[in-house]
Amino acid sequence: MSDNSNIHVVVGLSGGVDSSVAAYVLKQQGYKVSALFMQNWHETIGVLEGDCPQNDDLIFAQLVARKLDIPFDVVDLSVDYKKRVVDYMFAEYEKGRTPNPDVLCNREIKFDIFIDAAEKLGADFVATGHYARKETIVKDGNEIYRLLAGVDPNKDQSYFLCQLSQKQLSKAMFPIGDMLKPDLRKLAAKVELATADKKDSQGICFVGKVDLPVFLQQKLKQKKGNIIEIDKDFYKTIAPKDDLESLAKAQKYIALDGFVVGEHNGAHYYTIGQRKGLNVGGKTEPLFIISTDIKHNLIYTGQGQSHPGLYRKALFIANEETHWIRPDLEMKMDEERSYQLRIRYRQPLQKGKLIRKEKGYYMLFDESQRGITAGQFASWYDGDELIGSGVISE
User: Fold this and answer.
1) Are 118 and 110 spatial neighbours (Cβ–Cβ below 8 Å)?
2) Which pLDDT belongs to residue 51?
3) Catalytic residue among 21, 205, 230, 372
């Protein structure tokens, strides 16, 4: 067994059970372990009562560190978090796109400025409680880091790490990636960690569960507009052509394509596939958002989960918004490869192709996908390895 005692690992101790067990596992493996708690958000506007847990999280983190007898520090990264994550989030919603703050938080905070803070404490590596795995291989004499899905299919969080670079992965450790959540809970209880029965956090990374329109109203003001329903039969008359570029374009509508069924408070508060918050009754089936028009402040909806406007066969990612975790596998012009594809967290991997063209990459799915949304991250896998990702353009 190798001696890890001279390797210093700083654990991002969040006050949750996953990072707590990560710290415990590392200590059992003989590493020199210390804990660092991030304070990234202090505002309460739009945060649902009882769902801004940062103060409780700090107490839980301190209890775990004391139990494990490891050094504990706190670092305030709120200025960078607001600039790199929250301001970006507001800007994306203002443009009618739907960002994923958790992906950005990992790329910009947990595996960037947090690593800097940890290195000031003498860290060789930074560990988190993500359900993901890292593997090191040697190719052409160079070390390459593979990002692999977590073993627990119900908790795999590799998608949230889809924007990490080789440099970031070189410093990262994921001690619980090969564990199942029920087993992790049992272990936490067995060693009497304070977080053993603590519920998993939900909502925006470090902010908590929010009333999104209220949260966004800090920057994006209310603006009354019409909700327009598009009939299924009408959609059939404007269905996209069968070429790749047409299949990847989001369908655009005008007000005359449908009929007004209600009123909303601002198109920028809503996203494709959304059902809640429309407050339109009297329909045979529930209404779902199939498109938003920020310029004219209009929301387009369709009845039922099967409305064709909810589905697309392809999407496009511009070159400048494409990221390869494995740069050595980057595709050549006009090359196409079969990959397993994912457009949101917890979505089962979908079969399809990644196709490179001059302006960027197309994802072409074997089966049409529901709720493809501009601003979200689409990722591609080879087996259980996450190869790359990019921001959906429209």
Assistant:
1) no
2) 47
3) 205
- The CATH T-level fold of domain 221-394 is Elongation Factor Tu (Ef-tu); domain 3 (2.40.30)
Instruction: Verify whether residue 162 is a known catalytic residue.
Output: no
Where are the domains positioned within the chain? 8-215, 221-394
Strand partners, 104: none
| CA 283 to the chain's CA centroid | 33
Beta bridge partners of 134: 147
Contacts of 289 by beta carbon, 8 Å cutoff, 6+ apart: 270, 271, 272, 273, 274, 275, 278, 299, 300, 301
The secondary structure element, H or E, covering residue 68 is helix 54-68
209-236 pLDDT, tens digit per residue, is 656 667 777 778 889 999 999 998 888 7
Stretch 250-259: mean pLDDT = 92
Annotation marks residue 52 as catalytic: no
The tens digit of pLDDT for each residue in 67-76 reads 999 999 999 9
Model confidence at 31, pLDDT cuts 50, 70, 90, reads very high
User: What percentage of residues in the chain have a pLDDT greater than 70?
Assistant: 93
| Tens digits of residue pLDDT in 129-149 | 999 999 999 999 999 999 999
User: Quick count: other Cβ atoms within 10 Å of Cβ 231?
Assistant: 15
Q: Are 206 and 40 in contact (CB under 8 A)?
A: yes
Q: Which residues of 173-195 are buried (b: 16+ CB within 10 A; e: fewer)?
A: bbbbbebbbeebbebbeeeebbb
199: burial class by Cβ within 10 Å (0-12, 13-18, 19+)?
exposed
Which listed residue (10, 105, 126, 247) is catalytic? 105
DSSP line for 26-67: HHHTT-EEEEEEEE-----TTBPTT--THHHHHHHHHHHHHH
- Of the candidates 135, 151, 98, which has an alpha carbon nearest to the alpha carbon of residue 373? 98
Spell out the residues 6+ positions from residue 65 whose beta carbon is closer than 8 angstroms to its own: 13, 23, 35, 71, 72
Residue 154, burial from CB neighbour count under 10 angstroms (0-12, 13-18, 19+): exposed
Residues 6+ apart with CB under 8 A from 284: 303, 304
Instruction: Look at residues 20, 6, 114, 17 and name the one whose alpha carbon lies nearest to residue 65.
Output: 20
- The sign one gets for the Cα dihedral 94, 97, 98, 102 is negative
- What is the pTM for the complete model shown? 0.92
pLDDT (0 to 100) of residue 238: 81
Class of CATH domain 8-215: alpha beta
